[in-house]
């Protein structure tokens, strides 16, 4: 723990009392290179006097060791550290160009140096250190072809002559064009259209925001020219070269490529000459064109192929045939490669999650952690140690019971401590610093000025909105994420804040969506007081056939007309009644009336889109709510005696409350994400929904406003128990 011993003892002592009382990049110039037949990554890197790792970093669509596809557009840096040698102006024929590439002599080193391998080093890290490729190292250390790199091994490292800046020729700016963003286009769809990655597009356009993915309609982007795009109205039929495998027939060809047999024979007359399809025969297959303008996230989803995946596994995963997949992705006929981005039908469903038109694989974070990642956290919470006299135990216990900020802080932190124990059991080391901001904006500013914020992986807290804004703005300047552990709304755009508590608006949308999905012929009635007319309008817009019942509100009394409600209730189908209010008296009255009208002949079920404190008031009968199968959205569900529950009881001698459960779930999820990728923003791009003891997390970025948890539960009271709705 990164707190001083005096403060640690104070917080620890206060925790015991809490449990005891039961309160739980700079601009850079680039050029592009269209891959020609026979070219290799190493050859291109040497041609432009850069290392292969630089090219791989800027062009995520290619992988080290893969064969380069012809006409792939590569982004190549041309700054002072890596200048490109301009291609010779002499025009070569395709055949002579191929011969030149194949016969090009490899650059010879001007000398060698010896290097002793250190602990945890890899071939990649050593190659990066010396600005050479891993193949260069293997070439002069042939034992690495048959054995692994080992600590204390002595390597022979080649040294090459590098081009001087004055020897560099200028690059023709005609290689690029200006593209104007159209409505509904995204970075993904534009990059896909131009055959480059989003990373490459951002490198070419450094003015693009790093904080969000927003593109404005009419915004101009610098992009590499698509091959042949300067010739007007040209129509070129592209063909694939396909080697006929054993037992292949025309029917299978049609199923695989969608091409009729007579078309195949017309394009390949040797088939007729040789008496049909023969194993090993290389034939031409027409490549289907995709209509321009179809690359749009409104029409398609996109998926990045992972290592070791096959065409068979992908068709099983997405529930479509290989023929359908090939029609959308003609390049697939040249072979499936890791890193390829595949286009999928928009309505496709399966065991995966879709976010911003990107298909995400479900990741098991526990199986994906990297123990070499060492996250550093700051807990910035209001323990109010300045207001507690720890010598007076009874007074401290009384303060904890009455002060919500202290109750929340101690609950969250007690759960977080168990999460730290759990992550340590998985082999992940975490640096933690816990600081009491005393619920004071002045104290928060003082703390933040002293801390080296850039050294932290994430900050948890504070709880008060002024301090949270201050911490978010200061941490945002260092690109450090801040996790808001309780409900929070900001009038500022806080791009680095992870709002972990699902908003009321999202909970309401989830509840309405659930009702729409489950409804068959049920009769809907809406009861909403004056403060909830907006919710009423939203429900009526969704359920146009719903009935409404006016709430009467006099000086001291609030209620509904029982006779009118009785006439509205249907005896032919179940009645679903939405009650929208934050007045516990109205909840009590309506619940009691609905319960009395819920009979064998008239079935009534009660809903709300916002289960606020009014529904938890002690005057509300849980028996009535249970009889009405009261259903509502929630960020939290009750915890059973799981591993966390038992671990908490063992450590603190008491069962965890909902704040302790949330402290554990939030912290354990945060640490697992950081152990997977020690960058919370990057992890959020690939990690979908996660679930723990009583909470779910699924962060989605909303422009510059921050990252918002979209997960929730739909819960139902039945037989005096709360369970997830079916």
Task: Give a summary of the structure in a few sentences.
Residues 31-76, 113-157, 177-223, 301-344 form the LysM domain. With 726 residues, the protein is of the alpha/beta class.
Detailed description of the structure:
It comes from Zobellia uliginosa. It holds the Pfam family LysM. Residues 31-76, 113-157, 177-223, 301-344 form the LysM domain. The chain is an alpha/beta fold and 726 residues long. Helix content is 34%, strand content 17%. The chain contains 26 helices and 30 strands. It has a seven-stranded mixed β-sheet with strand order 14-13-15-16-17-28-27, sandwiched between helices. It has a four-stranded parallel β-sheet with strand order 19-18-22-23, sandwiched between helices. Strands 24-29-30 form a three-stranded antiparallel β-sheet. A hairpin with a 5-residue loop joins strand 27 (699-701) and strand 28. Helix 1 (5-20) crosses helix 15, helix 1 packs across helix 16 (404-425) and helix 16 crosses helix 24. The longest helix is centred in the middle third of the chain and has 22 residues, at 404-425. The protein is globular, with a radius of gyration of 32 Å. The two termini are 43 Å apart. Residues 1-5, 23-28, 80-105, 163-172, 228-236 and 289-295 have low confidence and may be disordered.
Report the major sheet.
7 strands, mixed
Work out the number of β strands.
30
* Average pLDDT taken over every residue: 80
The class by helix and strand makeup works out as alpha/beta
* Low-confidence segments: 1-5, 23-28, 80-105, 163-172, 228-236, 289-295
Strand content: 15-25%
Rg, rounded, reads 32 Å
Q: Helicity level, as a percent range?
A: 25-40%
* N-C termini distance: 43 Å
Q: Order of strands across the biggest sheet?
A: 14-13-15-16-17-28-27
Number of helices: 26
Broad shape: globular
């Amino acid at each position: 723990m990164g707190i001083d011993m005096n403060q640690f003892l104070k917080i620890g002592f206060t925790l015991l009392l809490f449990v005891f009382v039961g309160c739980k990049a700079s601009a850079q110039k680039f050029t592009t290179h269209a891959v020609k037949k026979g070219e290799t990554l190493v050859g291109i890197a040497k041609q432009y006097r850069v290392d292969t790792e630089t090219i791989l970093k800027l062009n995520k669509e290619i992988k080290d060791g893969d064969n380069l596809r012809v006409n792939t557009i590569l982004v190549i840096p041309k700054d002072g550290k890596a200048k490109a040698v301009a291609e010779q102006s002499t025009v070569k024929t395709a055949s002579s160009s191929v011969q030149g590439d194949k016969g090009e002599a490899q650059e010879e080193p001007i000398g060698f140096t010896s290097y002793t391998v250190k602990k945890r080093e890899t071939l990649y890290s050593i190659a990066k250190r010396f600005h050479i490729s891993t193949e260069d190292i293997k070439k002069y250390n042939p034992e690495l072809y048959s054995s692994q790199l080992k600590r204390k091994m002595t390597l022979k490292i080649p040294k090459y002559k590098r081009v001087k800046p004055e020897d560099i020729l200028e690059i023709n700016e005609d290689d690029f064009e200006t593209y104007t963003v159209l409505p509904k286009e995204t970075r993904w769809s534009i990059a896909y259209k131009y055959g480059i990655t989003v990373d490459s597009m951002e490198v070419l356009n450094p003015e693009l925001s790093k904080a969000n993915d927003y593109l404005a309609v009419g915004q101009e982007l610098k992009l590499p020219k698509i091959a042949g795009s300067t010739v007007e109205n040209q129509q070129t039929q592209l063909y694939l070269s396909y080697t006929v495998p054993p037992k292949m027939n025309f029917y299978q060809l049609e199923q695989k490529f969608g091409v009729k047999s007579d078309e195949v024979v017309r394009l390949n007359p040797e088939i007729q000459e040789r008496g049909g399809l023969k194993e090993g025969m290389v034939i031409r297959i027409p490549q289907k064109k995709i209509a321009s303008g179809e690359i749009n996230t409104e029409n398609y989803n996109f998926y990045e192929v992972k290592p070791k995946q096959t065409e068979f596994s992908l068709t099983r995963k997405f529930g479509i045939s290989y023929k359908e997949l090939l029609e959308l992705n003609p390049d697939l006929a040249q072979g499936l490669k890791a890193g390829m981005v595949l286009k999928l039908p928009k309505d496709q469903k399966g065991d995966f999650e879709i976010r911003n038109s990107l298909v995400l694989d479900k990741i098991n974070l526990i199986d994906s952690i990297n123990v070499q990642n060492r996250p550093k956290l700051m807990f910035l919470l209001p323990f109010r140690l300045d207001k507690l006299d720890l010598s007076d135990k009874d007074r401290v216990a009384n303060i904890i019971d009455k002060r919500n900020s202290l109750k929340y802080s101690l609950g969250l932190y007690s759960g977080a401590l168990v999460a730290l124990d759990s992550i340590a059991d998985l082999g992940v080391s975490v640096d933690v610093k816990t600081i009491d901001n005393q619920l004071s904006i002045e104290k928060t500013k003082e703390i933040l000025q002293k801390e080296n914020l850039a050294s932290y992986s994430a900050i948890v807290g504070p709880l008060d909105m002024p301090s949270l804004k201050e911490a978010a703005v200061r941490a945002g300047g260092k690109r450090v994420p801040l996790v808001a552990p309780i409900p929070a709304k900001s009038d500022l755009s806080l791009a680095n804040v992870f709002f972990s508590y699902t908003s009321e608006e999202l909970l309401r949308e989830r509840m309405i969506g659930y009702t729409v999905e489950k409804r068959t012929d049920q009769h809907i009635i809406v009861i909403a007081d004056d403060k909830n007319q907006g919710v009423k309008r939203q429900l009526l817009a969704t359920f146009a056939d719903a009935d409404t019942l006016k709430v009467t509100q006099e000086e001291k009394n609030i209620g509904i007309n029982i006779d009118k409600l009785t006439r509205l209730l249907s005896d032919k189908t179940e009645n679903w009644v939405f009650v929208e209010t934050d007045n516990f008296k109205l909840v009590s009255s309506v619940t009691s009336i609905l319960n009395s009208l819920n009979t064998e002949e008239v079935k009534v079920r009660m809903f709300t889109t916002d289960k606020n404190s009014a529904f938890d008031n002690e005057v509300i009968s849980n028996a009535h709510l249970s009889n009405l199968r009261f259903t509502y959205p929630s960020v939290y569900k009750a915890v059973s005696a799981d591993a966390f529950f038992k671990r908490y009881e063992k450590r603190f001698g008491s069962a965890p409350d909902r704040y302790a459960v949330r402290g554990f779930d939030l912290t354990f999820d945060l640490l697992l994400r950081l152990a997977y990728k020690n960058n919370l923003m990057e992890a959020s791009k690939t990690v979908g929904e996660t679930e723990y003891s009583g909470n779910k997390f699924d962060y989605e970025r909303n422009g510059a406003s921050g990252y918002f948890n979209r997960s929730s539960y739909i819960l139902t009271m039945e037989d005096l128990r709360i369970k997830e709705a079916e």
